[in-house]
Q: What sequence folds into this?
């Protein structure tokens, strides 16, 4: 039997207490990386041991596969409700299916406990099944339970731990936010979302992004500057923009791939596996990776898709927050203005469920903060960018003086300290720059100038090692400078 972590055990105890209090529909709000599928398998195993029947309803076929893997670890005997699936067996006391498949089936095996994954989607087919079979107990799972009308479907909201606490305890990875120029959305019309809110009209957003001819170049250059050559995923306003971004990365020698829902399932699996194994650096999409994409090795996110939706923003940030060996922090490159629009994702905590009594807003379901606590500011003592009046790093308290700033060229760090380079690291950088200069036929002064651009000082008292291989981050930095130079020349 797999042992549960404290926050997972707390979730099960709180769900059990809610059932004992008379509730039949309990929603577990748990961040990406919480281990919701493990908790589900534990609950299923417990129910099955007591002679109960269980149904697990997953959002999309890909999440069915992830569920099968988790249930296998618990030794659960299950059947799969899916056309031509080799594990189809309606006699099994535990059944696993996608919500889409359940919506097309007239006959569904009986169950005593139903677990609904990604329940904030509130598919009408699933709610119809729940209303028709209202005797069993239901557990909903979601990291972002902010959809309209969830309070009419679910009776109780359980939030056993926050993302911030999971980061503090080492279960999730801290995020270093960077902000940069994004497309102007101030005059764009909006369109209703299935979750009840509204977002920028996709066609209008695509047109505005197309008109901003310099944005994609800035994204590539800023990734070279700040992406640390990490495994990266990117969110774009459209499939067209995603393909354009991939082409631009390839043009600068960075291996990137595009993926979308029009690809064959077998093709998508190959691309997922290739990215996870490091065959290529950047995997770009429009929306496909927003839910259920589990890749702990991915530690950098390019967000070029502005959104008014807290759900879409927080789900995107959750793609890089999972921990992995050697992953001390993740990087969020914000070219959408979403961090400024919504705040840091780990500080968004579900507090209530919408019951359609008032004008709907996703933000109303998030834990309320004072304006001072929600504001993003720069610490006047240690220089970190923080959310609120008190710096968590040094304890310095400040007054709100200015909003976040970003430049048209280089990204500005939104949170966390800038990396402090040791004398040995600076020596290696200058050695690499000198080696590159001499290999390329440049004068030594070129290397000194590049060093000064990077470290804001001239190279002095450094130990040179011209035999050391040139590091990838140095190559990326040089490439970013060359792109910047070419752009300046083009404007002249």
A:
């Amino acid at each position: 039997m797999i042992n549960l972590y404290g926050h997972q055990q707390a979730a099960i105890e709180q769900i059990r207490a809610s059932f004992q209090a008379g509730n039949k529909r309990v929603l577990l709000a748990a961040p990406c990386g919480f281990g919701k599928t493990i908790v589900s398998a534990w609950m299923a195993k417990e129910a099955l041991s007591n002679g109960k029947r269980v149904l697990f309803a997953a959002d999309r076929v890909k999440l069915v596969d992830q569920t099968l893997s988790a249930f296998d670890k618990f030794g659960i005997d299950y059947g799969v409700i899916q056309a031509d699936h080799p594990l189809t067996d309606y006699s099994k006391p535990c059944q696993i299916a996608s919500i889409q498949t359940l919506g097309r089936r007239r006959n569904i095996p009986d169950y005593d406990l139903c677990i609904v994954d990604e329940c904030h989607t509130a598919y009408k087919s699933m709610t119809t099944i729940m209303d028709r079979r209202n005797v069993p107990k239901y557990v909903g799972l979601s990291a972002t339970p902010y959809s309209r009308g969830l309070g009419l479907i679910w009776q109780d909201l359980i939030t056993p731990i926050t993302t911030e606490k999971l980061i503090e305890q080492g279960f999730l990875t801290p995020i270093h936010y960077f902000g940069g120029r994004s497309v102007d959305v101030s005059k764009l019309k909006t369109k209703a979302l299935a979750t009840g809110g509204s977002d920028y009209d996709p066609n209008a957003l695509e047109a505005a992004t197309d008109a901003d001819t310099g944005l994609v170049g800035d994204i590539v250059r800023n990734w070279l500057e700040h992406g640390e050559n990490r495994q990266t995923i990117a969110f774009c306003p459209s499939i067209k923009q995603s393909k354009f971004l991939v082409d631009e990365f390839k043009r600068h020698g960075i291996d990137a791939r595009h993926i979308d829902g029009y690809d064959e399932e077998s093709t998508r699996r190959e691309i997922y596996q290739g990215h996870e194994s490091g065959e290529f650096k950047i995997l770009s999409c429009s929306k496909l990776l927003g839910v259920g994409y589990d890749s702990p090795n991915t530690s950098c996110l390019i967000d070029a898709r502005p959104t008014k939706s807290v759900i879409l923003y927080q789900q995107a940030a959750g793609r890089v927050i999972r921990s992995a060996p050697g992953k001390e922090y993740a990087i969020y490159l914000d070219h959408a203005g979403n961090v400024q629009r919504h705040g840091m994702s780990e500080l968004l905590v579900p507090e209530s469920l919408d019951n359609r009594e008032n004008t709907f807003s996703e933000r109303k379901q998030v834990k309320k903060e004072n304006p001072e606590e929600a504001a993003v500011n720069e610490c006047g003592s240690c220089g970190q960018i923080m959310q609120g009046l008190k710096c968590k790093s040094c304890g310095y308290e400040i007054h709100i003086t200015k909003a976040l700033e970003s430049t048209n060229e280089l990204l500005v760090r939104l949170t966390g300290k800038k990396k402090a380079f040791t004398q040995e690291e600076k020596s290696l950088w200058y050695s690499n720059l000198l080696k590159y200069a001499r290999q390329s036929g440049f004068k030594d002064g070129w290397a000194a100038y590049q060093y000064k651009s990077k470290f804001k000082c001239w190279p002095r008292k450094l130990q040179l090692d011209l035999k050391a291989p040139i590091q990838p981050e140095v190559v990326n930095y040089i490439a970013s400078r060359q792109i910047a130079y070419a752009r300046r020349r083009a404007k002249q």
Remarks:
- The CA atoms of residues 450 and 456 lie 10 Å apart.
